Amino acid sequence: MFSELALHERLLKALAELNFTEPTPVQAAAIPAALEGRDLRVIARTGSGKTAAFVLPLLNRFISGAKPRVAIRSLILLPTRELARQTLAEVERFSQFTFLKSGIITGGEDFKEQGALLRKDPDVLIATPGRLIEHLNAGHLKLDQVEVLVLDEADRMLDMGFAEDMQRLVAECSARQQTLLFSATTGGNALREMVNNVLDNPLHLMVNQIAEMNESTRQQIITADDVPHKERLTHWLLTNEPFRKALVFTNTRVQADRLYGRLVAQDINAFVLHGDKDQKDRKRALELFSQGTSRVLVATDVAARGLDIDGLDLVINFDMPRSGDEYLHRIGRTGRAGEEGLAISLICHNDWNLMSSVERYLKQTFERRVIKELKGSYQGPKNVKASGKAAGTKKKKSAQKKNAAKVTKKPSKRRQPEGTFVVSSDGHAPLRKK
After folding, report:
1. Phi, psi of 129, rounded to the nearest 5 degrees
2. Helix, strand, coil percent values for the chain (each to nearest 5)
3. Which carries the bigger pLDDT value, residue 276 or residue 422?
4. Please, are residues 216 and 333 in contact by the beta-carbon 8 Å criterion?
5. Where is the motif (Q motif) (predicted)?
6. Who contacts 317 (Cβ-Cβ below 8 Å, separation ≥6)?
7. Which of 103, 114, 235, 335 could form a disulfide with 341 if both were Cys (CB 3.0 to 4.6 A apart)?
8. Beta strand 430-433 with 421-423: parallel, antiparallel or unpaired?
9. Class at the top of the CATH hierarchy for domain 2-208
10. Would you tell me the crossing angle of helices 111-119 and 129-137 to the nearest 10 degrees?
C-alpha cells in the first residue's frame, strides 16, 4: 500500500484522489531507496510505473524541505517532446495539493515564452536536451542549485546523439545531491559509461529480466515479399483484426508518410507522427489518437518511448526495429498495466536476420502467422543457421584464380626500349642507360 511508504500526506492525498492504492513492483522497490537519498539505476519494463517511481520521491523531498523559490531545484531530462509532456502531466497530478511548481522546455515551442518560464524558477523542470542547451547558451538557465537530476530513457537520448548535451547538462548540475536513472532496457556501452560517470555508489534495481518483459503481449510475425505487400498486409490487419487503437511503426519518416498516405487513400482514419512534423501537428495527432478520434497512428520511433495511451492493444512493426531494445520499447506501447496486447512484425527477406537477432535477445520464438488471402511467395530463408539467421552461399574461387594467386611474378627479361632507364630492384638509382 502507498500508505505504508514514507510519503508526505499531501502526496498520499493526491494518490487517493487518483485511485492509486497499491504500488507496482518498480515503485515498491525504488521509492523507499530514493526517499533515503540514494542514487538509483533502475531497469523495469515499459508500462510498469517508472514515472511515479521517481516523481513521488522527488516531490516528497521538496515538500519536506520547503524553501523560497529562487532556483530550479530538480531537472528531469527525457528524449522526446511527447514523453516530456506526459511526464509534466504526471508531476502536476501528483503535486496538485502542494505549492510546488513545474515547467517544461522542449523544441517546437516559443523560445521567448520559455525564457520567461525559466525566470520563474520552477521547482521541477522537465526538458529535452537539445532545447535546454539552447537556453543555456542564451544565458536563460542556471542549474547550479539543482538538487535532484533524473535521466529518464537515457539510452534513447544517447541513441539520438545527445551524449555531449547530456554530459554538459550533468556538469552544470554540479551541486546535485541525488541522481536517478530509469530505463526499460539495459542499454549499451555508452550508457554503462554514463552510469559509471554520473551516479555515485548507485543501487542497481532490475525489476524485470528481459525474458519477463511484455509477457502479456502476444508476438507474431508475418512474412512479406516486398514493401507493397507489407502495405496490403497492414491494410488487411487494420480492417480485419479486432482492436481499439493501433500503432504502426516504420524505421523512416519517408516510409511513415508513404504508408499514411496509402491508408488514408483506402479510407482508414489515421494520423502520422515523426520528427519532421510541426510541433502543433504532433501534439494534435497524439491528442486525437488518445481520445480515440483516430484509431490508427503511423509513427517512427519517436513514439516508442514512454507514451502511455489507453486502449492501445495492437502494435504493427511495418519495419523490423534495428535492436532488441527498440523492439521492446515499441511493443511496450501495448499490453500495459496487465492488459493483453498483440504485436505483429512484417518480415521481408531483409528483415529476417534482424528478427532472428531480436528473438535471440528475448530468448523466445515468435509465433508464425499466415494470412491466406495475402500469402506471398517468401516464407523465410531456405537455409537457416543454428543462430536462426539466414544461411548465405559463399562464392567459391575458381581453380584458375587459386592457381593465379599462387603464381609469383618473375621480372621481365624483355629488352628495354631505347632511351629508357633500367631501375634497380630497390627502386632507387638507375643501373644503366640504353
Report:
1. -60, -45
2. 40, 15, 45
3. 276
4. no
5. 1-28
6. 249, 327, 330, 331, 343, 344, 345, 346
7. 335
8. antiparallel
9. alpha beta
10. 80
pTM of the model: 0.65
Both ends of the chain: CA-CA distance in Å? 101
Q: Which of the four CATH numbers 3.40.47.10, 3.40.50.300, 3.30.420.150, 3.40.50.800 does domain 212-374 have?
A: 3.40.50.300
Whose cell is 488518445? That residue is: 290
Residue of 79 and 405 predicted with greater confidence: 79
SS3 category, 233: helix
Q: Which helix (H) or strand (E) holds 8?
A: none
- What sign results for the dihedral spanned by CA atoms 115, 117, 122, 126? negative
The total number of residues written for the chain in this structure? 434
Question: What does the alpha-carbon distance between residue 226 and residue 84 come to, in Å, rounded to a whole number?
Answer: 36
> What is the Cα 293 distance to its own chain's centre?
26
CA dihedral 16→22→25→26, nearest 10 degrees, is 0
Lowest pLDDT segment from 21-35, 145-159, 172-186, 201-215: 201-215
Strand partners, 380: none
Q: In whole angstroms, what is the distance from residue 298 CA to residue 303 CA?
A: 9
Residues 6+ apart with CB under 8 A from 157: 77, 78, 79, 129, 151, 163, 166
Residue ranges of the domains in the chain?
2-208, 212-374, 399-433
Please, are residues 328 and 184 in contact by the beta-carbon 8 Å criterion? Answer: yes
Q: Is the per-residue pLDDT at 426 higher than 60?
A: no
